[in-house]
Amino acid sequence: MGTYILRRLILMVPTLIGLTLMVFLLIAMSPGGIGAALNVSSGGQMDSGTSKAQQQAYLEDRYGLDDPVLIQYVRWLGRVSPVKFGQRDQIAPTGEVVRAPKQLKTPPRYDVINDTLPEVEAPDPVVFDESMTQEEQTRAYRLASQHYTRLRADSIRTRTIYLETLGRALREIDQDKYVERTGTMKTDAPKRAVERALTESGMESEIRESLDNALSAYASAERARLELKAVFDAKPFREAGFPIIPGTLSVAAPDLGMSFSRGRPVTALIAEALPITLLLNFIAIPIIYIIAVPSGMLAATHRGSWFDVLSGGLYVALWSVPIVWACVLMLGYLANNQSGLGAFPVTGLHSIEAQDMTWLPSFNDGHFVRGFILDTLWHLCLPVAALVYTGFAVLSKQTRAAMLDNFNADYVRTAKAKGVPSRDIVLRHVFRNSLLPIITMFVSIFPAMLAGSVVVEKVFSVPGMGSLVIEAIFLRDREVLLANAFIIGVVNMLALLLADVLYALADPRISYD
Amino acid sequence: MPSKFGFKDFILMVLVLITMILVILAMMQDDRTFQNLKETEAKLNDIESNLARMQRQLDTNDLSTKLDEISRQLESGVIVSGSSSTAQRSNLPDWAREGVEIDSTGPWGFTTDPYDQDGFSDGGEFTEYFEGQPPKITTFLYADVYGRRVNDLVMESLGWYDPISLKMQGRLAESWQYDPNGEWLRVKIRDNARFSDGEPVTAEDVRWTYEDFLFNQEIEAERFRSVYNAIKSIEVISEKVVEFTFFEPRFDNFDQAFGFKIAPKHIYQSWTESPAAFNQSTGLLVGSGPYKLARVSPDDQWTPPSDIVLVRNDLYWGPRTPLASVRIKCISDSLARLTDYTNGGGDMMRPNPSQFDEQRANESFNEQHDMREWYNMRGGYSFIGWQCGPRNNGPLTPFHDQRVRLAMTHLIDRDRIRRDISKGLARPATGPFLSSTPQSNPEIEPYPHDPERAKELLAEAGWIDRDGDNVLENERGDEFVFEFTFGQGSEGTLRMVTYIKDACAAVGIRCNLRPIDWSVLSDILNRRDFDAITFAWSASAPESDPNQIWHSNSIANQGDNFIQWSSPDADRLIEEGRRMLNVDERMKVWHQLHTVFHEEQPYTFISESPWLRFTTKRMRNMQEYNSGLEYHEFWISRESSPMTN
């Protein structure tokens, strides 16, 4: 059994890589591509601004969108993987992960125009004095980091101007195919094209000037980078994780990254949304079970009776009501106090007054105050109802079918022949034997719970996982979507593994060895 | 084997029971401390507001002594105050530069004073709805219109647009000198201006906010950095005097210097020292405005999705605002929002045009609510943009010909679109400048709906039905076919494009509809990959810079001139206008530019859309200004029944 579980666990790694790669490619290939959100906010406003290419270069650099898609994916894998290669990250006292400074890009095709890169002298290694406090070390790192950030932005800006100048020159000589939509030259344009742009466009001095600017900005940024690297190497902060082979291999907690549509860590977003979705489902699923299982049993014992027919018909009818429509009806008839009852709140999880409420209900000057717990339950009524009503059909039919299977089994006939009371046969023998599929069904429901219910959460303004994911899809938020696919993938596979193990435990005939 | 209730079960039951009782007891204990805490908090609030009142009294005493001083000065012959007053060279205040006029706009106060009104009452909470959830409201990090609206209430800039005249007026700025050559601007900040913690607003705050906060590359404020591109440097002259230096004389220098929000250095400096943590913050917002957030600290800040609650800034340096607090609920589903509003959950919501239209005839709704509809500078206009250049580096579209564009405008019955599709909640647009702003040329009349004239124009341009198949062809025999791109999801837009398709078919033009997802819009615009496209622009200031959308420079490099329209006349006028510092002269140039747009029809301008608001009857003094709404003037009447049901 142990080796079986281990094998399954190891198999999870390629499955997860395949899964996230699929999601990653889907986002990358969808219209708008990764980070469509970055451009959305600037549309529709009559605001003027600096060159779009420069703004975009800044954002792409910030989120690493200027690299090929596969490299972006590998980088993401590296961050998520608990096994890390190379230099270890460090963790600042604020809890933020500090990484070695990113490499800087040279201006593309500089070699055609200028033979050499300007020399950048490596700074001396930094060693922190024993007497330096953590605060002083942090300060030293911050200063170096600020300096580098400023120069890096400058380098990216001048590099973009250089590419724009080349782009203009290429258009001048009708070589539009080497020009990006943003008006910059494509970074993989062949040397020949650059040579022609230089000699034929009549913009030679302009191109040279922009390259000189770009190169000198590059040189100072590179110098600042090396300085920052030196400070980083001196380890101003505690290192993350545990070393396995010092300097090359270590183990650290996975980092799910930052959402670029919301500018916050994905873990924080999920930590906010997940409990809400779980709360909804932990109320909804027991309700489904409590109603569906007994009525399935009753339907099985009284097969063909009016109860069997009615409950079956009713559940299937409920199952076929579209959730959107049901939600709208509930809002209109149960929540609206003009056209309906107004008995339930319309949106959210708490009333405005809930912040000032105590946990428990109380009487205040003769007024009944709901208290926080009751208030939350009251707000959950409609969303939970919307989640529950479609669930009866499948589960009660499943129970009914499993029970009927067992009723026809030999042991039931034997029990009957022995004179066991029929109540005992149903509850003690048949029901217990029919439980297996019901339990494994729960295992498959659980991952679906994590994903959240998009429609219900949207209509009732419940800020759960469904809302988070649907928004991330619209904005092509790479980080949120991948983290979500990753977590759901892991939970799903663990649940399936658990189901298989449970099978073996529940049924001695099954063995994986 | 019948199950027995054994000893083990009993122990288990007892344990479960004890745990439950303990949990309930813990809750009760927690409730008691909670009640105590609430009482202490209430007392603290009392003390705080008393302190604030005392501070205000001190201020007014201070002010009266100053007034005395001014009147004495007036008697002795120094001219101060009043708009655009000229100070004599010999009597310039000590902060000013020699030889340049001093401007000022007098004290900052209410445009419509709520305190004089019948039945005025102070306090109460005003609740409004946002249609989306802003992910963050931190200064300079927010990315949407909702974040901006919250920031507008909490933070202030040196100037603001007068709600009626839409002229830039001093807010934190008391008086200023603007170089006639447009190279520098020296501003004196009001002596009594202070942040919500009582600290004064100083020149150093202005400098720091711009140079070390907004332009700190480690702060993710690129959106703002790209907008504020006119100011070269800011110099602190003295504690209350600051001088801006501009890159070049440009028309929007003054508005940019007066427009960015001033943040308190003594608070933000420590926050921005760890930029990564600051970049992740959601609700770090402190300013000098009439409202403030009750809790602002990196450890205890507003996070979505809770309501945004702004409370009155009792230490506000300007006139005291009547509302005790403003609550903002974010509900993205439009039906849920309307239901919550009609259930009495809020005081103001923004309906969509069809919701507004449905309620117009609803008497009981009208008894309880005000339906507001007005045009202001923050409105927008919808249009059809015609591809005037090669589509996606391919062939030219028929619309490169001005006569064809003019024909399309004549062909489309814009009155009917406004009447039947926008339900009358729109008015004609003739150009990109909203008619409520001074930039718009009032003499321009919209073109009439005239299909005959459209046919003539098309024939002039060479589009005639040459082979009798009821489709127009040009000389080369190409049929007039174009693709009409529009954003999915709006029923109104769908009806409009369908109508236009029919109108085109009637004169022999084939129009293929191409619905797109909004997230690919910018991609399509950047590639110039459309024949005709419809959407809307919105504005946030009374004067917009036409350069970005209309100058031929903006065709290359993904500028917003995505229709690739190039007109030497327009280019000349845009350049001329941008250099012109005198407002009245500049408006004349913009009016000429408006005429060029009208003649050239690079867009067919369909309509301007009004602001639509439902508000409860208890809300008072909600003036429908040219600048939008001014929250600091609202008050809540106690006469009408409270909104709870």
Structure report:
Chain A is mostly helical. Chain A has a domain at 35-66 and 90-239. Helix content of chain A is 63%, strand content 5%. Chain A is built from 18 helices and ten strands. Chain A has helices at 2-29, 36-40, 52-63, 69-80, 110-113, 134-172, 191-200, 204-233, 266-301, 306-319, 323-335, 372-388, 392-407, 410-418, 422-451, 454-459, 465-475, 478-506, and strands at 83-85, 90-91, 97-98, 238-239, 242-245, 249-251, 258-259, 264-265, 362-364, 367-369. Chain A has a three-stranded antiparallel β-sheet, with no helix packed on it. Chain A has a three-stranded antiparallel β-sheet with strand order 3-2-4, with no helix packed on it. In chain A, helix 15 (422-451) packs antiparallel against helix 18 (478-506). The N and C termini of chain A lie close together (6 Å). In chain A, 35% of the residues are buried. The model of chain A is unreliable at 40-50 (pLDDT under 50). Chain B has 645 residues and is of the alpha+beta class. Chain B has a domain at 380-608: Dipeptide-binding Protein, domain 3. Helices cover 36% and strands 17% of the residues of chain B. Chain B is built from 18 helices and 22 strands. Chain B has helices at 7-75, 145-154, 203-214, 222-227, 253-259, 265-272, 275-280, 334-345, 353-360, 363-368, 402-411, 414-421, 451-460, 491-507, 521-527, 547-550, 568-579, 583-600; strands spanning 103-104, 125-130, 159-161, 168-170, 173-178, 184-189, 231-238, 241-246, 291-293, 308-312, 325-330, 348-349, 369-374, 380-386, 427-428, 481-487, 510-516, 532-538, 603-609, 611-616, 619-620, 635-636. In chain B, strands 15-19-14-18-16-17 form a six-stranded mixed β-sheet. In chain B, strands 1-5-6-8-7 form a five-stranded antiparallel β-sheet. In chain B, helix 17 (568-579) runs antiparallel to helix 18 (583-600). The longest helix of chain B is centred in the N-terminal third of the chain and has 69 residues, at 7-75. At the A-B interface, helix 2, helix 3, helix 6, strand 8 and helix 11 of A face helix 1, helix 4, helix 7, strand 11 and helix 8 of B.
